[in-house]
Amino acid sequence: MVHASSRPLRSHSAGSLLGGTAAVPGDKSISHRALILGTLCVGETRIAGLLEAEDVLNTAAAMRAFGAQLERDQDGSWLVRGVGVGGLGEPDDVLDFGNSGTGSRLVMGMMATTPIRAVFTGDASLRRRPMGRVLEPLRLFGAEAEAGEGGRMPITLRGARVALPVRHHLTLASAQVKSALLLAALNAPGRTTISQAALTRDHTERMLRAFGAQIHVEPLETGEAITLMGEAELGATSIMVPRDPSSAAFPVVAALLVPGSEILVPDVMLNPRRTGLFAALRAMGASLEVTNRRDSGGEEIGDLKVCSGPLTGIEVPPDWAPSMIDEYPILAVAAAFAEGRTVLRGLEELRVKESDRLAAIAAGLKALGVSVDELADGLIIEGRGMDVQGGGLIATHMDHRIAMSFLVAGLATRDAVTVDDTQMIATSFPDFCDLMRRLGANFAEPD
Ligand code: S3P
């Protein structure tokens, strides 16, 4: 149902192809971390290319509430004057993280070993998401938390009066939880070791190193163990935020699906723990060519050339999930237009993202006339080649990635696709609709 306050949008192929340069915004994960570590060091950190989207701006507001000084320079870069590890002040108001699981969970970790109190809340989607996964291990450091039913927000967190170092094995494949624990370890005495079976994104580890923390990563038979020296003194540095592969995913798949298209995505981050989607699309037969591969401030980047072409269904190995966890909605759209069956498994985590993504994707694809089996931990999608009917109204459930994925689908379906609300797109990719229109996408207000 479309509510009076929602902003629906209709996407249609209209026979036109996509072309040009898709300069997608800065990486969301790195942007949150740069603001947080800038706050935890002494001195001035300059951040170029920060993602100026709602999720990250909410983290910026929280950093101010903890005492950091933040300023946007005329050249668009951000300056953060930090308070140092252990120097956080107590926020005098509730911290509202909007839609952001990453911002809220990382900041819980950041304050968990400083003896201050903060209250965390967010929008209806974030208030439904499980927080026990981060609060439980933070208690090991000595933090205390009061949460709503099922460990949900609003949450009052009291940082440890006497922080303890921790040894903990994380069974969940979550970079957010791992990062929260590493941030907490910064103000605990001695060594903290966090191990994880899954190789989740490692931006926190890389950036901690850049800020001068003593951190050691030991590969294990399965996964890795990260040891961090606490009571750290972090020194200010400059951060260059590379472009977000998770945002690039939408124009990339659009260019693959719309016949005759060719686009370039410059300077996109190619950290191997984030590029699972590109590997999966290549396995489906996509033409994706990386040129100008280079290092940018400790992260690999490159330019990605994408040409349209037919795709074939595949079975995506479940252990690829951490490297493409946010990309399953758009991969599922690509699979709908592939020849043959695509099997996606090992995805129970998708049920607790901004929406229950397995349910939202399955319902959306069915509305387009695609046959899909929703499993407890995945999806089986019967690809229809370039013969997808479309025509449906897609329920986005306050989920930016569901909205963007189905707008992309509408560029290649027979009938136009309408998504019920596009407002949440501003949480990660405020320029999405304009960027896609500049490439040639036909997005219009529904009649
Ligand atoms: C993120 C980790 C992932 C991802 C999220 C960003 C991060 O969440 O879905 O969008 O920046 O650490 P989980 O760690 O919960 O899998």
Features:
single chain, UDP-n-acetylglucosamine1-carboxyvinyl-transferase, Chain, 2 domains, 13 helices, 28% helix, globular, binds shikimate-3-phosphate
Can you summarize this structure?
The protein has 447 residues and is α/β, with parallel strands linked by helices.
Topology:
Layout: E1 9-12, E2 19-21, H1 28-40, E3 44-48, H2 54-65, E4 69-72, E5 78-81, E6 95-96, H3 101-111, E7 117-121, H4 124-127, H5 132-139, E8 144-148, E9 152-158, E10 167-170, H6 175-185, E11 191-196, H7 203-210, E12 215-219, E13 224-229, E14 238-240, H8 245-257, E15 262-269, H9 276-283, E16 287-296, E17 299-307, E18 315-316, H10 328-336, E19 339-344, H11 357-367, E20 371-375, E21 378-384, E22 393-394, H12 400-410, E23 417-419, H13 432-439, E24 442-444
Helix pairs in contact: 1-2, 1-3, 1-7, 2-3, 3-6, 5-6, 8-10, 8-12, 10-11, 10-12
Bound molecules: shikimate-3-phosphate.
Shikimate-3-phosphate binds at residues 29, 102, 174-176, 179, 201, 325-326, 349.
Overall description:
By secondary structure, the protein is α/β, with parallel strands linked by helices. The protein folds into two domains: 9-26 and 242-444, Alpha-beta prism (UDP-n-acetylglucosamine1-carboxyvinyl-transferase, Chain), CATH 3.65.10; 28-240, Alpha-beta prism (UDP-n-acetylglucosamine1-carboxyvinyl-transferase, Chain), CATH 3.65.10. Helices cover 28% and strands 26% of the residues. It contains 13 helices and 24 strands. It has helices spanning 28-40, 54-65, 101-111, 124-127, 132-139, 175-185, 203-210, 245-257, 276-283, 328-336, 357-367, 400-410, 432-439, and strands at 9-12, 19-21, 44-48, 69-72, 78-81, 95-96, 117-121, 144-148, 152-158, 167-170, 191-196, 215-219, 224-229, 238-240, 262-269, 287-296, 299-307, 315-316, 339-344, 371-375, 378-384, 393-394, 417-419, 442-444. Strands 22-23-1-24 form a four-stranded mixed β-sheet, with helices on one face. A four-stranded mixed β-sheet has the order 2-15-17-16. Helix 12 (400-410) links the parallel strand 22 (393-394) and strand 23 (417-419). The mean pLDDT is 97. The chain binds shikimate-3-phosphate. Residues 29, 102, 174-176, 179, 201, 325-326, 349 line the site of shikimate-3-phosphate.
